[in-house]
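Input chain follows. Return structure tokens only.
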Amino acid sequence: MKIVNFLYLSILVLCCQIGFSQTIWQGQYHSYRIILSGDLNSKNLDSLLLNIPELETKTKVAVKIVSDSVSFKNEMYGFSFKGKYNEDKTALKGIFNNYSIPNAAVILNKQTSAEPLFFAQHPQKPYPYEVKDFTFSGKNTKLTYGATLTTPKNKKKYPLAILISGTGQHDRNYTFMGRESFTVLADYLARNGIASLRVDDRGFGKTTGDFENATTGDFADDIEEEIAYLKSDKNVDASHIGLIGHSEGGMIASIVSSRNKDVKFMISLSGVGVSGLEMLNLQNTAILKSYNFTDEVVGKQMELYNILFKAVYDTKDDESAKPVIEEKMKIWMQKQDSVILKKVQLWDGRDQTFLYRYSKDADRKWYRYTIHYNPEDYLPKITIPVMIANGDKDIQVPAVENINSFKKYLKTKDLTTTIYPGLNHMYQHCITCKQSEVKELDEVFAPEVLDDISKWILARYKK
């Protein structure tokens, strides 16, 4: 679901057009690659290029070498590094410091080219399973889809899961800050005898189409095309197809499972089980509380938010919500004193910034569709085996309320629900469990969830 942010943050991007040398020293700290480009053995060395791609930062740094010690810095932008060579001078081990990456212990390895972000759970070749990248055409949508099919080796019969990503435009691997959740999931499934299909979202990678003007309903149509393709491919066992959806992907899985008889099982990972209006209330309340705002601030902010959510909900599809949002917000603000307005950061013109951003989101077809989502339209029609999972630290799709709604409306006789302790929305073991922490955690996908998914699917397939 789309989050209505309380704080709108901006990022300062440093840009310097400097060419790369063939020799680089690359390290990684959580979601950030630190790349020093240039020859440290050059006799005329005075500065080299520092590149942090994930911060879109490139800048020169002054380098100093004394015996086996190497340091570099850029005082203007606050970059510094102090470290030492290893024995054969193929790596530098030291401490990197910056506003975004404070006091980070890193190892810069000597390489000839930059490598992508890597996390320990990412699979490495050779794979003990088959991987096929290809494109196919949608009969009804008329779109071209870029896909990856992963199948167990030497097996003609197997269950097959279609992986469905959450809100936002994603590649087929469901990559976020370098972490490839679906690559890790597909790897685990294949090692346990389960095939999977993952597909680029509309307008991304090898998939065509207009993402900005698409709705959750359109994304459900994309899944229907994926099912149709799998059934048409004689080299694929499509007799036991299921859906695994994360977040909004869980909502998409519910829509498709309610109407497509070829779907044999459904797994919803942090999927939406409540109405669109209730989801916005739960989600924004949890996010505001994660910032440690007082109950007064959270209460006042949600009072306004729920007024605006209802205003958008009641607006006709062919009309802009901005006039009614503006009027409702004006009336609410007139009832508040300056102290409250300052506390909720709607003072000194900030209300206009909020109004502009929210009204722009509120007029999107996607937002209108999701705010009107009603689980009663879909869940009672689902009778296949269903697994519902959530992390108890999830602040984007709070576990208890959503799982209870699934239990209330689903008609399946085979329902498994699990709330995993200590896991955030992306199925990482978290510490602060705020949204900003996701990029600071090196775990991609909690192993216990991967294991439970595989065992659950195999148990239903054997039946």
